[in-house]
Design goal:
164 residues; alpha+beta; Thiol Ester Dehydrase, Chain A; 24% helix
């Protein structure tokens, strides 16, 4: 378990993901498989020529794959083993297209925190994820609300019993 507990997070904290290793590259093949698996036949995601006619550099990565990759990049060092649940994705803005072959990194900023009124031993964190491509350009911004465990509230064995 390498995630952060509610108690460890402060408004204004910044985290860079991935904390270990290199940026996450999205291949054209991965994008095509994602579209196929989820039934998205949008020609813009697989036809370079069509996309160029619309002013893009080539076929663009499915925006839901971009969202998935960006959120998943934050798990290991932010929410792994300490999240109770995603409460909301309040704002998602795709600033520029992502193309097959682009590599993404994420910056997370803690924007608000409060005690949970419904679950003892938990707190609610609001944060913003900023996804950037290999050139440092912002490609996506996500405002997200998450319920986190408090470190002092329960040992792991008790957490499993209470939340299962």
């Amino acid at each position: 378990m390498s995630g952060k507990y509610y108690d460890e997070l402060r408004v204004g904290d910044r985290f860079f993901h991935p904390a270990k290793g290199s940026a996450r590259k999205i291949s054209k093949e991965e994008n095509l498989k994602f579209c196929k698996d989820w039934g998205n036949n949008q020609i813009l995601h697989y036809d370079d020529e069509f996309a160029r006619q619309l002013g893009f550099e080539g076929a663009i990565v499915n925006s839901l794959l971009t969202l998935t990759v960006v959120v998943n990049l934050t798990v290991d060092d932010l929410t792994d083993g300490t999240i109770v649940g995603n409460l909301s994705y309040d704002r998602i803005i795709h600033r520029r297209p992502v193309y097959g072959g682009d590599s993404l990194t994420v910056e997370t900023i803690i924007t608000d925190k409060k005690e949970s009124k419904s679950k003892r031993g938990c707190g609610i964190i609001k944060l913003t994820h900023i996804g950037r491509n290999q050139d440092g350009n912002i490609v996506i911004e996500i405002d997200r609300t998450i319920m986190f465990l408090k470190r002092e509230s329960f040992p792991v064995s008790e957490q499993i019993a209470i939340f299962s």
